[in-house]
């Protein structure tokens, strides 16, 4: 028996909707390690997912799941340098990356030359 076209279409739509939705998590106790990258001049002035313009000189970051406005401490595990950033965008859009930092944040972490760094991310309570 062949599935009816409307059933297949509904199943496909449900699958795509599930993949497209973002899953926002509770930041309390968030503590993860992974790879950070940064974005700068090419995106400067463009709207972030939160609606504000991206400022490569600000201390902000993109994260897939943390709520906008969450402040996190990011520590470069290679050199021990840390910076506090505010989540204001969604990303990173590259597989295997945990967070995208503004250029200013990446500079404070000492990762401009390498472009990426292994980091620890800890949510801060306000």
Automatic annotation (TrEMBL):
Topology in membrane: Lipid-anchor
EC number(s) stated in the UniProt entry for this protein: 4.2.2.-
Chief place where the protein resides: membrane
Key words, A-Z: Cell membrane, Cell wall biogenesis/degradation, Lipoprotein, Lyase, Membrane, Palmitate, Signal
Subcellular location per the Swiss-Prot or TrEMBL entry: Cell membrane
Cleaved signal peptide residues: 1-22
Keyword Glycoprotein: no
Record PROSITE patterns: PROKAR_LIPOPROTEIN (PS51257)
One Pfam family here: DPBB_1
Gene3D superfamilies: RlpA-like domain
Catalytic class of the enzyme: lyase
Domain RlpA-like protein double-psi beta-barrel: 32-121
CDD domains associated with the record: DPBB_RlpA-like
Family per similarity comment: Belongs to the RlpA family.
Known role: Lytic transglycosylase with a strong preference for naked glycan strands that lack stem peptides.
Name this protein carries in UniProt: Endolytic peptidoglycan transglycosylase RlpA
Organism: Pseudomonas idahonensis
Lineage: Bacteria, Pseudomonadati, Pseudomonadota, Gammaproteobacteria, Pseudomonadales
């Amino acid at each position: 028996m062949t599935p009816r076209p409307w059933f297949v279409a509904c199943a496909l739509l449900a699958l795509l909707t599930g993949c497209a939705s973002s899953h926002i998590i509770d930041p309390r106790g968030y503590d993860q390690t992974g790879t950070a990258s940064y974005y700068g001049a090419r995106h400067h002035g463009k709207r972030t997912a939160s609606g504000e313009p991206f400022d490569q000189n600000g201390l902000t970051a993109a994260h897939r799941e943390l709520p906008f406005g969450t402040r996190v401490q990011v520590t470069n595990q290679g050199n021990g340098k840390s910076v506090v950033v505010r989540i204001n965008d969604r990303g990173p859009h590259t597989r295997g990356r945990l967070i995208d930092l503004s250029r200013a944040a990446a500079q404070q972490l000492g990762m401009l030359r390498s472009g990426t760094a292994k980091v620890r991310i800890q949510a801060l309570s306000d």
